[in-house]
Amino acid sequence: MSRREDIKRRELEIGKLEAEFEQARSALQLCRDDHARSATLRERKAVTEQQHAEKESELEGLQIEVRKLQEQLQQTREQKAELEQGLARSERLSEQQAGDLRESIAAVEYRLEQVGLSQGELQRRREEDLRRAKRHREESLKKMAVETAQTERQLDAQQERLEKRAPFAGQVAYRAAAPGNANSHDPLIVLSPPGGLRLHIRLPGWMKPPLEDTAEASWKLLEDLERDEQRRFVESRFTTRLHGWKDLAAHPGYGVAEFTCDAPAEALRLLARGEQIAARLVWRPPLHAMPAFMMSMVVASVAAMAWVATHAQTKSEPTRSAPPGSVNGHGAIRELSTEFGAEGELLRLLGTQLREMTVRGELDVNIIAAAEWALARHRDRAVRLLSLGLDDGDDLCNHLEMLVKSIEEGEPSSNGHATGERAVALRRLVDVLRAAAPDGCYERIRRISRKLARPAARGSNGRHPRFEFAGR
Q1: Which of 442, 358, 440, 367 is nearest to 407 (CA)?
Q2: What is the CA 41 to chain-centroid distance, rounded?
Q3: 259 forms bridges with which residues in the sheet?
Q4: Does pTM top 0.85 for this prediction?
């Protein structure tokens, strides 16, 4: 029965493989037609060489898959034929032995009837013949059982050679597109745990709450061009999810963050080959989560309070006279301080820092990032307060034009930043000034922005900032 069940299983497997083979052949025929059309379009310059190469790669992959299915179908059919032949031999041998036994019994009975011996002698001989037949049958059955066990072991060995089971449960993270063409040291398949691969990194403890609030953190694979000029990743970015956190007792304030990730196939292939790759965390926590930001806010608040106290003391002295036009400015500052509190004073100080940075000609990406965050968070209120801190528009635009000219001429910076980095920071600064500068210099800043003629820069959070407000 076991052999018959194996034959039935092979028949089901043959039916399944035939269906898959027909589907693969249909897909191959469609791919051939598509490849032929692509070749015709390529001759007419309707498609690019890269698109035609992709069609050829897809056709080669389907041809390999069809050949693989055809080989599996042929092997399964051969296995079925071998099982059927073995079953037929076993049945023929059983029938032959049964026939021999029947003939022996019939001959004995005929001899007993013809000889006319005594009943006791005939019974004795008959019993002897039956015992001998029984022994012969038992020996034959034992021999058949040994042969059957040997055949089953051969089938198990053949099945073990054809099938390979994974050592653990998981999901396929990487599979070679053409296993038959892979090199000896290249992996054919890579399995990962159900939740994805695990990535461990040591991070400061203050980054744990922002990571827990963030759904996904972005990473970027680094290209090691010094050691391998051919290592260039097509998919260089991937995302991770925080899975766990373990505080380091030997390093207070630090912990080991465990991420689950689905790395690109290129990186998995290199890791399976035993090579090392480098990745960089491009996710940035929000500014309010940084300890330095909170400290700077406290320092700025203390400075603002000191400035307000000094200003109030200056206004109380009757011997000093305010310069023309300052009364309205100080009144506006007091009005904003009353309306927005310490937060309004901080935004005004941020506008003052933007102005001083532009006047000095030294671009600070931290100040620019803080201004971008303020515009994205407070919008019209940030525009109003930053504009008050920027103050004189014409002088600001003059220094801004000088800064643009120095970067275009490639002059080195005092803080050692490269020209490319300064150009990116300048574009971000122009976007901020275009949103928050006084109305008197808006047209000049817009002309500077058009002169730069560049794609939208990314903000500190990795997104494209858009600062469009009413009246601009």
Answers
A1: 358
A2: 35
A3: 199, 242
A4: no
Q: How far apart are CA 430 and CA 448, in angstroms?
A: 8
pLDDT one-digit tens code per residue, 236-275: 888 888 888 999 888 888 899 888 888 888 788 888 877 7
Count how many residues are written for the chain: 472
Could you give the CA distance from residue 333 to residue 342 in angstroms, rounded to a whole number? 11
**Interstrand relation of 217-222 and 278-281 (parallel, antiparallel or unpaired):** antiparallel
Angle between helices 380-390 and 342-360 (to 10 degrees): 50
Q: Which residue has the tokens 């035993």?
A: 274
Enumerate the H helices of 188-325 as residue ranges. 208-213, 265-272, 291-316
* Residue bearing tokens 């996710």: 283
DSSP string, 53-99: HHHHHHHHHHHHHHHHHHHHHHHHHHHHHHHHHHHHHHHHHHHHHHH
Alpha-helical regions (H) of 116-200:
119-162
Could you report how far apart the first and last alpha carbons of the chain are, in Å? 87
Burial profile 438-467: b = 16 or more Cβ within 10 angstroms, e = fewer: beebbebbeebeeeeeeeebebbeeeebeb
Helix, strand, coil shares of the chain as percentages rounded to 5? 65, 10, 25
- Strands 217-222, 237-247: pairing is antiparallel
Cα atoms in the 13 Å half-sphere on the side-chain side of 2? 8
Residue 273, number of CB atoms within 10 A of its CB: 11
